[in-house]
Amino acid sequence: METKKIKSALISVFYKDGLEPIVRALDEQGVTIYSTGGTCQFIHDLGIEPVTVESLTGYPSILGGRVKTLHPKVFGGILSRRDMYSDGEQLAQYEIPEIDLVIVDLYPFEATVAIGAPEQDIIEKIDIGGISLIRAAAKNFNDVLIVPSVERYAEFLSLYTQQEGATTLEQRRRFAAYAFQVSSHYDTSIFNYFNQQEQLPAFKQSCSEVSVLRYGENPHQKGYFFGNLEACFDKLNGKEISYNNIGDIDAACSLMDDFSETAFAILKHNNACGLAVRPSLLEAWKDALAGDPVSAFGGILITNRTVTKEVAEEMHKIFFEVCIAPGYDDEALAILRGKKNRIILRRKNFKMHDKVFRSVLDGVLVQDRDTVVPTMDQMLQSVTSTPITEQQARDLVFATILVKHTKSNAIVLAKNGQLCASGTGQTSRVDALRQAVAKAGAFGFDLRGAVMASDAFFPFADCVEIAHEAGIVAVAHPGGSIHDQDSIDYCEKNHMGMAITGFRHFKH
Predict the structure, then answer these.
(1) Could you tell me which residues are beta bridge partners of residue 477?
(2) What's the pLDDT at 406?
(3) CB-CB contact of 127 with 186 (8 Å)
(4) CA distance 186 to 152
(5) For residues 135 and 113, is the Cβ–Cβ distance under 8 A?
(6) How far is CA 190 from CA 122, 204, 400, 471, 472, in A?
(7) How many CB atoms lie under 10 A from the CB of residue 166?
(8) Are 502 and 479 in contact (CB under 8 A)?
(9) What's the rounded Cα separation, in Å, for the pair 248 and 343?
């Protein structure tokens, strides 16, 4: 494949890490190096004399560095088409040198936003010259190679040294793709910063970090994770995290974030099959497992407390895929590492995305994350003459949090801070309730004195009737049905407490 020799380069970067070997390699090949500001000084300190952009353009850096490279003598040399005679004539007429290589690393806009810098500092980190250089060089990939970020230094240096200072069209096109990835991500970050206030109706998301997964939801599907798992967790043991693992981990973290008491949960296919809040973590684990010891096989375990040796010993008795906790005692970790494929994650203090989106048809659905958490005050306000006790209210808060995180149609039955059973993902709310009642019975739960939470209103009185027959003494639901009074009347007649929260929690 035909190659082009690099004879001249423009270097203007923010981060200088890894730049030295590139500069020395270019110098060894006799490449003319043009540079600006701090980069120019960096190269000079290496004992190599670059040509300053100021001497090329005849203009100094102005406006406090806002304008350095924005000049026809720079962009003409980058954008000129080497196979077009008229372009060459104009370069000669205006004494513009051709530039074959552009190396840029942009101002760290995202990092400046992330540290909570003042807005003026953030605005000054919006790169103008650098982003223009990237786009210009990428557009003219037929003749110019663009290295658009520090992440591409090593790849460029490798091909440059192996090919003795020459590049192929295929390589230049690949680096152009890298460049437009960088520029589009950069602009998306800037837009999303401004749109926090403006709230323009636009969907723009970009993530440069990607993990190629073994497969997607099923082995015949490709799968990727765009994000930084290392910012969320320390992986302490286990096999590669899968597509399905990540979905379950997300569901588990979302659920656990709504609990402040000592809690333990077990999830399968994004739904909790066991959950308990207790004074001690060992009690929470045992009672969570009791909720459904069959479904716990191969599940995702999560807690909001440090896992101790005694808890780890009990956990180690069953097979599970993933464990998530804010910490592990050394002895606990040693026990849990007894299975080499078991994924052990130590959760870091990261913030869940405040938007939820999914691809549908030819577009994307976007919504706010459901962050509504029920309160004791809500649950203590019974709409029947039967008061709701403190313990029942606590259980209704517990059950309503859980039903919020369960696939619709959903019903949750709870008692004394423990999940007795749930009905998940049913097309009928009655079927969801019957499923929950049957499951609770199968695992030996006595539902007398238990409570029920529903993710949506009861369209008829049949659900509260079935619940009452099973022993349920108090229920919570959002209300809003034209037949709400039918359910209220049944609860009134049968001495059941009822709380109406006003918040529906569909989850699909």
Answers:
(1) 500
(2) 96
(3) yes
(4) 16
(5) no
(6) 10, 11, 38, 56, 53
(7) 15
(8) yes
(9) 13
Read off the pLDDT of residues 91-142 as tens digits, 9 standing for 90 and up. Answer: 999 889 999 999 999 989 999 998 899 999 999 999 898 999 999 999 999 9
Residue where the block lists tokens 């223009």: 132
Q: Which amino acid is at 120?
A: Q
The pairing of beta strand 418-423 with beta strand 411-415: antiparallel
Count the residues in the chain.
Answer: 508
Which residue's entry shows tokens 């790169």? 127
Sorting pLDDT into bands at 50, 70 and 90, what band is 308?
Answer: very high
pTM of the model: 0.84
Active-site residues: which are they? Answer: 139, 269
Asked if 61 and 54 touch (Cβ cutoff 8 Å), the reply is yes
What is the pLDDT at residue 1? 67
CA atoms within 13 A on the CB side of 267: 29
Quick check: 423 and 445 in contact, CB under 8 A?
Answer: no
pLDDT tens for each residue of 141-157: 999 999 999 999 999 99
Instruction: Tell me how far apart the alpha carbons of residues 403 and 423 are, in angstroms, rounded to a whole number.
Output: 9
Q: Classify residue 432 as exposed, middle or buried by CB count within 10 Å of its CB (0-12, 13-18, 19+).
A: buried
208 or 44: which leads in pLDDT:
44
Residue 357's DSSP bridge partners are 366
